[in-house]
Design goal:
Chain A: This is Transmembrane channel-like protein. The complex is a heterodimer of chains A (about 850) and B (about 180). By secondary structure, chain A is an all-alpha fold. Chain A is built from 29 helices and four strands. Classes of the chains: A mainly alpha (about 850), B mainly alpha (about 180). The interface between A and B is large, with 85 and 80 residues.
């Protein structure tokens, strides 16, 4: 079909003795050079063309009838004989630049254009990166020092940048490479590493460049007379850098679950992988929390245990693991165990007993004071610091992930993105590859239909029907959520009353009474398990504009359920139990709340594990044996991630009351990983719906930060600020609020040391005065407004630049057509000459 | 290019060295016995295509051609080429490198731009070999040439082809560019 339009540049190049652009070592910086070259070689090419004349003539003749089949080309059919008409050029410009009527020389020029060679020729890449390093140096304003110049470079008058001599025609590429190395050497280490990493050259090239850049550095250092201390500094820096790199590589090789994650992504793709990566992130958060609380709270208290409780020891029975009560109650696991005085090392037993009734502050009667450890203060500040650092890490990762998925310009290039970006090169298994191809085909067809039918107006009745269906589904979901929340409220009320009645009438401690405490967690976990299924069923009857909208709606419904459940539970604990603990006969309400959270966490884990193991397994058996379909259950990513977030919220709520809760959460996540992975491998198939992994990851991190972490920290802050701690246990006993521990310490500090009274004054004005908070919030809002204005301005600039590029494209087409017409004229005149010659 | 793994600079990250030695192991596994004695052995394309990562990949032949530096354009790879291939597909390659190589892989006729023919072949590779998953010529035309289509969305200078900068522009806007 297009046989005569020979796009193979090699063919002509071999003929003309020039190299093909793929092997090109030369650097073409401007079109001007190209044309110069062509005209220089004009004599040669003309001579050759006289030889090829017959073939070209045949080609040209056939050109006019050979067209690539496409509807836009119909116009060309009627215009064969008018090639030399200049007014034609105006209309030519409207058509794209793949007209088949170009001669071989024009095609040669077209295929060696800088925009087309940049992807292939090494010289072009080096030139491009030379420009980039130049810009980077200018931006960093690194003035090159005189001694670093190579002989051929001339320093500029301004002192910025390096102006070089005119390029020698035959050694263009070598000198460009030298300049690139020079630039690299003058960049800072991190910039250089980043530039080198980003260069799409072969590995050998890059190592050469690296070696040259460092060689010059070493050479320049040894040339000049550096004082010896600076050389020593240089060696120290090198040694530190080497050890840092070896530490990084060690860390890299230690990466947790690398093989497992690779298998999962190989079979199921990046969507499912993002769930497991999220699990890993949560694991690291909990590890951090555990290390902090362990080092500052658990360890000191474990080394100095308080005296045993008057009730005596309770024997270990298996139920403790589930309820968290029993013999665990008086252990380092719970808030009530912690002492409220300053711990001292090398105190004898007598002194410790002596200290029992002392309030916080300096403990009397102990010889050594320098190893004292103020436990209440430590507790308060550790929890505060842990939350603060977690907040910073969360906000940082959220903003980073948001920055990756947010784009300034609003244009939707959905089709192009789908075609260019959807192939997952990580998928290896043949069936998965086939599945991915099927998915992509379906998605492309769906997108095409969507794009083309966007303009179809739906009739009023259709829209009304859709509205009715949507509102029905939403009312089902909201209704069931409210029903469950009310149920939990009344059930917790019932349990509360039950506990109260049993507290007032003294009954013996039996296993059954402890097991009754498990009722509320079981009910809540059941609700968390069953209600999302109901939501899925309701969503099944709805139709949405696009699959992503469907996912978002599902996530928001699940989120609504979990937030309301957690809200009602927090009210129950902080609003009912904490306020009047004596009614329940509790010595220590913090211990009770801590145990409740432990039970909830554990029940959640047990139910998730059972659901995964049996639910998916049984569903697969059911669908294979009974329904006789080969469709396995799909791994519902959104639902699983929301369950992880729910568990993490419980853990954050519970850190204040149960400092060892992060450890339990770590164990739970580890086990969950293996359970989920095992079940996935055995029972599930990859999700059929398109999954935009990084946008989802952003959403999940945002959900982790906003409802989850924010809610937990609000609850903890409220507890610390307003609720009275219990009077007979815990590090804050006797104080009005937990916050007072910090306040009184600062006041004490001010009293003891008049120099630090400034700190006390600052503390009282900043932390307790709301005006400061309003001011800070106001400043933040102004900064955010400023940034949105900047983004708007950048959007406008992007539109302008796009128009400019379009205009440049027009110019390019114009020039090519002109070149073609000039070439035509030359050729026709040559042909006339030859025909005249042959005629004579 | 005569450098081997042992001659690459000492101040490279040791992680890089670990990766290189792994790659060397896999490379030598694919060599035939007589080739092992050669100083700079070259594996033919057929052997490369038996690697598990490439076996089912519809772009496997293009990948071999892109990374091959042989003069005969037969897709055979030396050890450096193999190392380039593995590092371009590894997790530590930057977005720039991956988009650069993706462009070259998608450029089926190696002319430096993605024109209509390249895009057609690309879509056919993506959607699979079987007839029921292929797009009809009508849909193909709609996808590539129409008013709201790939070319319309990504060709900024309106020359009818997608060159490297335009390709990288589309890629940078899509956070889901998977490797």
């Amino acid at each position: 079909m297009a046989r005569n339009v020979n796009f193979d540049p090699n063919h002509h190049y071999m003929e003309a003795g020039l190299e093909s652009p793929m092997d090109e070592e030369g650097v073409h910086n401007s079109f001007h050079e190209l044309i110069e070259e062509q005209t220089q070689n004009g004599g040669l090419s003309e001579a050759l063309e006289l030889q090829q004349l017959q073939r070209d003539f045949d080609e040209e003749g056939r050109d006019s009838v050979a067209f690539l089949s496409s509807p836009g080309r119909e116009r060309w059919r009627g215009r064969q004989g008018q090639r030399e008409d200049i007014s034609e050029d105006d209309e030519d410009q409207l058509d794209p630049l793949i007209a088949e009527r170009w001669s071989s020389a024009t095609l040669r020029i077209l295929s060696s254009m800088p925009s087309r060679t940049i992807g292939r020729s090494r010289g072009a890449i080096i030139s491009q990166y030379y420009n980039r390093t130049m810009q980077l140096r200018r931006r960093r304003q690194s003035r090159p020092s005189i001694r670093d110049f190579s002989r051929s470079a001339r320093p500029s008058i301004r002192g910025y940048g390096v102006e070089t001599d005119g390029m020698e025609a035959d050694n263009v590429e070598v000198s460009k490479r030298d300049h690139l190395v020079n630039n690299l050497q003058n960049l800072s280490v991190s910039d250089r590493v980043r530039m080198l990493r980003a260069m799409p050259l072969s590995v050998a090239e890059k190592s050469d460049l690296r070696r040259l850049a460092l060689q010059k550095e070493r050479r320049s250092f040894s040339h000049s007379q550096i004082p010896c201390c600076s050389r020593l500094k240089y060696y120290i820096i090198i040694a530190v850098r080497q050890s840092w790199y070896s530490w990084l590589s060690f860390l890299h090789s230690l990466q947790l679950w690398q093989v497992a994650l690779k298998t999962v992504s190989g079979r199921f793709g990046t969507g499912v992988l993002s769930y497991f990566l999220f699990l890993k992130t949560l694991l690291f958060f909990n590890l951090f929390l555990f290390l902090v609380t362990g080092a500052f709270l658990v360890l000191p208290q474990a080394v100095h245990p308080p005296p045993p409780p008057p009730q005596g020891q309770v024997n270990f029975s298996g139920l403790e693991l589930l309820t968290g009560g029993g013999c665990f109650s008086h252990s380092v696991m719970y808030h009530g165990y912690y002492s409220n005085f300053t711990l001292h090392k090398s105190c004898t037993d007598d002194d410790r007993l002596h200290n029992l009734s002392a309030s916080n502050g300096t403990g009397a009667g102990c010889a050594s004071k320098h190893l004292s450890y103020n436990m209440p203060l430590a507790y308060f500040f550790t929890i505060g610091m842990a939350f603060f650092i977690t907040c910073i890490i969360l906000v940082y990762s959220m903003s980073k992930s948001f920055g990756q998925s947010f784009r300034i310009d609003k244009s939707h290039s959905i089709l192009a993105m789908k075609v260019f970006c959807s192939w997952d090169f990580k998928v290896i298994k043949k069936t998965s590859v086939k599945l991915m191809s099927d998915n992509i085909c379906t998605q492309i067809k769906e997108l095409l239909a969507e794009v083309n039918h966007k303009h179809d107006k739906k009739t009023v009745s259709q829209r009304l029907w859709r509205l009715v269906v949507h509102s029905l589904a939403w009312s089902i979901c909201i209704g069931s959520t409210i029903a469950c929340v009310v149920a939990i409220y009344y059930f917790s009320d019932y349990m509360h009353e039950d506990l109260r009645s049993r507290a007032s009438s003294p009954t013996k401690y039996t296993l059954l009474s402890e097991a009754r405490l498990l009722a509320l967690p079981v009910v809540v976990s059941l609700i968390n398990l069953l209600l999302p299924g109901l939501f899925n069923a309701a969503a099944w009857m709805e139709e949405y504009d696009s699959p992503s909208v469907r996912t978002y709606v599902a996530i928001s419904r699940n989120l609504m359920l979990k937030v309301s459940v957690l809200g009602i539970l927090s009210y129950h604990w902080l609003g009912r139990v904490a306020v009047e603990p004596q009614n329940l006969g509790l010595q220590c309400w913090e211990n009770f709340v801590g145990q409740e959270l432990y039970r909830f966490l554990l029940m959640d884990f047990i139910f998730t594990g059972l659901d995964t193991l049996f639910g998916e397994f049984l569903w697969r058996l059911f669908s294979e044996k009974v329904l006789r379909r080969s469709r396995r259950p799909v791994f519902d990513i959104a639902r699983n991630v929301l369950e992880l977030i729910y568990g993490q919220t419980l853990a954050w709520l519970g850190v204040l009351f149960t400092p060892l809760l992060p450890a339990i959460q770590i164990l739970k996540l580890l086990l969950l990983f293996y359970i989920k992975k095992g079940s996935l491998m055995m029972n599930c198939q990859a999700p059929r719906k398109p999954y935009r992994a990084s946008q989802m990851t952003t959403i999940f991190i945002t959900l982790l930060c906003f409802p989850s972490f924010l809610g937990a920290s609000v609850a903890v802050t409220y507890t610390m600020w307003s609720i009275t701690p219990s009077s007979s246990c815990g590090p804050f006993r006797g104080l009005k609020t937990m916050f007072q521990a910090g306040k009184s310490w600062v006041a004490q500090l001010g009293k003891d040391n008049p120099n630090l009274s400034l700190l006390a004054w600052v503390h009282s004005y900043l932390v307790e005065n709301p005006l400061f908070l309003f001011l800070a919030a106001g400043i933040f809002l102004i900064v955010i407004y400023f940034h949105t204005q900047v983004v708007d301005g950048q959007r406008k600039i992007i539109t302008l630049l796009q128009e400019q590029i379009q205009n440049e494209g027009e110019d390019k087409k114009f020039l090519i057509t002109r070149l073609q017409s000039i070439h035509e004229q030359k050729r026709t005149s040559n042909r006339r000459l030859t025909s005249q010659d042959t005629a004579c | 290019m005569g450098t081997t793994a042992s001659q690459l600079g000492k101040d490279l990250l040791s992680e890089y060295q670990v990766r290189t030695s792994n790659a060397h192991k896999r490379f030598t596994e694919l060599l035939s016995k007589e080739d092992k004695a050669l100083p700079n052995p070259r594996i033919p394309m057929q052997s490369i295509l038996t690697l598990p990562e490439l076996k089912s990949n519809p772009f496997r032949k293009r990948i071999c051609h892109v990374f091959s530096t042989s003069d005969m354009k037969d897709g055979s790879l030396t050890f450096e080429d193999f190392l380039d291939l593995l590092s371009a597909f590894s997790d530590s390659a930057t977005l720039e490198i991956k988009s650069h190589y993706a462009f070259r892989i998608f450029d089926f006729d190696d002319d430096g731009t993605l024109d209509v023919g390249d895009l057609e072949k690309l879509v056919n590779c993506l959607t699979g070999e079987t007839d029921d998953t292929r797009l009809t010529p009508d849909e193909m035309r709609q996808l590539i040439n129409n008013v709201s289509s790939i070319l319309e969305e990504s060709d900024i200078d309106k020359d009818g082809t997608v060159n490297l900068s335009e390709f990288q522009h589309v890629i940078s806007r899509s956070p889901d560019f998977v490797r």
